[in-house]
Design a protein that fits this description.
2 copies of one chain form a homodimer.
Chain A (H helix, E strand, L loop, with lengths): L2 E4 L3 E7 L2 E8 L1 H9 L5 E7 L5 H9 L2 E2 L3 E3 L5 E7 L6 E7 L19 E4 L4 H10 L5 E4 L3 H6 L1 H10 L2 E5 H8 L4 H9 L5 E5 L5 E5 L3 E4 L13 H17 L3 H18 L6 H5 L2 H15 L4
Parallel strand pairs in A: 1-4, 1-9, 2-7, 4-5, 4-6, 9-10, 10-11, 11-12
Antiparallel strand pairs in A: 2-3, 7-8, 12-13, 13-14
Helix pairs in contact in A: 1-8, 3-5, 6-7, 8-9, 9-11
Chain lengths: 301, 301
């Protein structure tokens, strides 16, 4: 099965205590697609400007990403410039240029509307609702969001949450959205807003999954060197959705396996700047690290 | 097998966003003992003042703790007063009165020197070395420490680390001791200082175990209500050591199981103020939560 992702395509300029990268391929849809493509065919709905280099598109299509839904608009591509602290869990956004993303209206090519697995990347909740309304036979629709929409468009966001199957957000957003500091309470409160499954990304501490009938908690893959955390969350979501779409179904066992694959795939992303490691990655490396992760976490047999 | 613990006995006054407790039973040896006693007989080496109530001693001996090595000195019991932030991972020490702990010299009753499993709670490294030198047939000696000794007595602390089997410290202390922010690097650096196993306590994020031949990473038991984190780390260490001393041995499989038992036991401690929950706890509740934890973390079969 294919996975559809609607999200941002960007140029990222990244600074971390370990170095920097200037105007590299970025955006939630880019990281999501590169990760998901290891597991299933991917369809991007997004927009880039005229300045977007052919190389980046080639890298995506070579990975198995269908770019028919990627619009090329007059103007410049979305740009983000961020700087990470010594504690890589903390970052400052130094500059954002929305550019072509400002007037972006998702366009779905014929055929895309039949996609059963869809991920609504972080964007205006109205755009997320619009995409959702066009899906003819959604099997699993998941969404991300961010502090901006939680504060500025709470009503629209609530409508999204009422309709999605799964929410994938990070811990600070979960706290903000729910008003609870405790992660279990936060997850329970978000579950009441509509989704069947709440997935909370905790960065270097792993993932917490909460639903009415199952709770799953799993640490992150421990890494000796983290160069750049950018895109880890979107890589997680991509591998998670791709793994499910690849035929595993949406039962509890399949969800847990997909979460661990998400975890493991994201652990590669942060080992180099931007999407470099993800682009060079082989599926066999993911499977090998998955097996290693089983060994790292096993305690009961 | 018995477990020996050398550490502080205290009165704690605790403030958290959820309430407070005044002059309750505290100290690393108290929490350690109450937790370890669920698994094995415990021997305390420590000191209290004349103001220490008989009730506290009764609570300990009823749990199966041998108090022969607990000195009663002229003067007042060690006192700690702390306040936790809204983020319970952060706390301020408002007052410390060392009192009888100031001149404490560990005294080992006859028979204690034969104990094979020993835990050197957070105290002056010279006192830890002294206790170690008296153990006739140590099988597993573990130690804790804190920022004060890392900064003030690095030379003496290094001697302790050269001789212990296992170090049990929290993540901020691991970073301080090693000079590395990354937890894997920190653990690797501490391993080079001498111990065979490094156990890093990450509070609500679980535990990271590192040794030359095995790495183990496990999340904490997710709790909906944390009232007071005081004593969680010492409860973890107590259940961990008690579990090993109960006959599980010191192999990789036994270590992992003991770590999870430590995790699960500590999850009870934080559910109420001071050691209240730990004192009321039944072994069957620990086993039940252990089984639940297996379900919460299982993803591969």
């Amino acid at each position: 099965m294919s996975v559809l992702v609607v999200g941002s395509m960007a140029f990222d300029s990244i600074e971390t205590p370990h170095g920097s990268a200037d105007r590299v391929l970025g955006g939630s849809a880019a990281y999501f697609s590169l990760a998901a493509a290891f597991f299933a065919p991917v369809r991007i709905v997004g927009v880039v400007g005229r300045d977007f280099p052919e190389d980046h598109l080639t890298a995506l299509s070579r990975s198995g990403v269908d770019l028919e839904g990627l619009q090329r608009a007059e103007g410049k591509t979305f740009f983000w410039h961020g700087r990470y602290h010594e504690d890589l869990n903390v970052r400052d956004t130094l500059e954002v240029q929305l550019n072509v993303l400002e007037d972006f209206v998702p366009h779905m090519p014929p055929g895309y509307e039949d996609t059963e697995y869809a991920f609504l990347g972080n964007m205006h909740p109205d755009a997320q609702l619009d995409v959702m309304s066009r899906l003819k036979r959604p099997r699993l629709v998941a969404c991300d969001t961010m502090d901006h929409w939680i504060h500025e468009n709470p009503g629209e966001l609530r409508k999204v949450l009422e309709r999605v199957e799964t929410v994938v957000i990070n811990d600070s957003e979960a706290r903000m959205l729910s008003g609870h500091n405790n992660i279990v309470r936060a997850a329970r409160a978000i579950l009441k807003m509509g989704p069947r499954v709440v997935l909370i990304k905790r960065g270097e501490y792993g993932v917490f999954q909460f639903s009415d009938d199952a709770t799953f908690v799993v640490p992150a893959y421990p890494l000796e060197e983290v160069l750049d955390p950018t895109g880890a969350g979107d890589s997680f979501a991509g591998a998670f959705m791709g793994c499910l779409a690849s035929g595993a179904g949406t039962g509890d066992r399949a969800l847990r396996r997909a979460i661990v694959y998400g975890n493991v795939t994201a652990s590669f992303t942060v080992e180099d700047f931007g999407p470099r490691r993800l682009i060079a990655l082989e599926r066999e490396e993911i499977d090998e690290r998955y097996r290693r992760f089983v060994e790292l976490t096993r305690f009961h047999d």
